[in-house]
Amino acid sequence: MIHNWRSSLGLGIAVSVVAGSLAFAHHSTAGYDLDHMEDLAGTLKQVNWANPHISFIIDTDAKDGPRSGTWAFEASSPGVLTRSGWTKRSIQPGDHAIFTFAPLRDGKPGGILRKVKLDNGTELSYSFMPVE
User: Fold this and answer.
1) Beta strands 55-60 and 38-48: pairing type?
2) Separation of alpha carbons 42 and 98, rounded Å
3) Using CA atoms, how far apart are residues 126 and 78, in angstroms rounded to an integer?
4) Which of 43, 35, 45, 59 is nearest to 112 (CA)?
5) 38: which strand partners?
6) pLDDT digit string (tens) for 76-121?
7) HSE-up of residue 6 (Cα within 13 Å, Cβ side)
8) What pTM value is reported for the model?
9) How far apart are CA 98 and CA 40, in angstroms?
10) How many CB atoms lie within 10 A of CB 47?
11) Nearest CA-CA partner of 102 in 24, 35, 41
12) How many Å apart are CA 110 and CA 128, to the nearest integer?
C-alpha cells in the first residue's frame, strides 16, 4: 500500500512538472525580438478573437519590398485584452491602422502585437510585455 502511495505521488509530481514546462514553453516570447519594436501601416483583413491568443491578419500599405503583403500578428488572450479595454468591435476587418509589434526573429512577416493606433486617433494597447 505504501509503495502505491509513493508511486502515485511520484507520478503526480512528474505530471505537474511536465505540464508546467509545456505551459511555460507555450507562452514563451523567445521567437520575438522584444528589443526592437516596429510600426507597420495597413488594413485589418481578419481577426480571430479566440483563446488562447487573438490573431490578426494585416494587408500592409507597402506595395514593394520586404514589408509588403500580408502579415500575421498574435496578441494575448481575449481576457487580457478585454481587461485592457478592447472589445470584439474595437477593430474590425477593413479598419486602417498603425500596428506596433515585436517582429519574429526568423524574419517572416509577423510578430506579437503590442499596440494599434486607428486612423481616428484611438489607441489600443495591453500590458502583455513591457512598454518601450
Assistant:
1) antiparallel
2) 6
3) 11
4) 35
5) 101
6) 999 999 999 999 999 999 999 999 999 999 999 999 999 999 999 9
7) 3
8) 0.75
9) 5
10) 19
11) 35
12) 17
Q: Are 34 and 129 in contact (CB under 8 A)?
A: yes
Return d(Cα 91, Cα 47) in angstroms, integer. Answer: 8
pLDDT of residue 73: 97
- Per the listing, cell 511555460 goes with 24
Of 100, 130, 97, which Cα lies nearest the Cα of 114? 100
Quick check: helix, strand or coil at residue 80? helix
Nine-digit cell string for 63: 506595395
Q: What is the pLDDT of residues 35-70, one digit of tens each?
A: 999 999 999 999 999 999 999 999 999 999 889 999
The count of C-alpha atoms lying within 13 angstroms of the C-alpha of 43, restricted to the half-sphere facing its C-beta, is 9
Contact assessment for residue 54 and residue 76, using Cβ atoms and an 8 Å cutoff: yes
Q: What is the pLDDT of residues 36-45, one digit of tens each?
A: 999 999 999 9
